[in-house]
Amino acid sequence: DDDAARLGLKPVMTLTAPLLAVKQLNAGDGIGYAGAWVCPESMRIGVAATGYADGYPRHATAGTPVLVNGRRTQIIGRVCMDMLMIDLRGINARPGDQVTLWGEGLSVDEVARYAGTVGYELLSAVGGRANTDFSS
Prior knowledge:
11% of the residues lie in helices and 34% in strands. The chain is built from two helices and nine strands, in the order ββββββββααβ. α1 (108-115) crosses α2 (119-125). The chain is globular.
């Protein structure tokens, strides 16, 4: 139950994905499967090139943290097979910018808590097409 950072451990895998698109949406617009997440205001969103087919947890809830250009934000809507949507309010981002899904600056254990699992499951689920960086 101890946090890896408190134990002095550093991440050995960073999972990233590029932003495919940045869109301006209006209040009331639906995001993700079945439009389940509704924009509370006019806002910018990003579409990242990763999803549950890459090993990102399908059960990660809206609000799960990610980093865009080193700034903390959150996913919105449901995780799709090949993409996920990101709240870009207050973040300057454009297509091609990298999204850190976990790794340096964002613990896999924190992401796992939002998905109702443990970090080990997330690390072992990453598929071959995912953009990973292993450091020692």
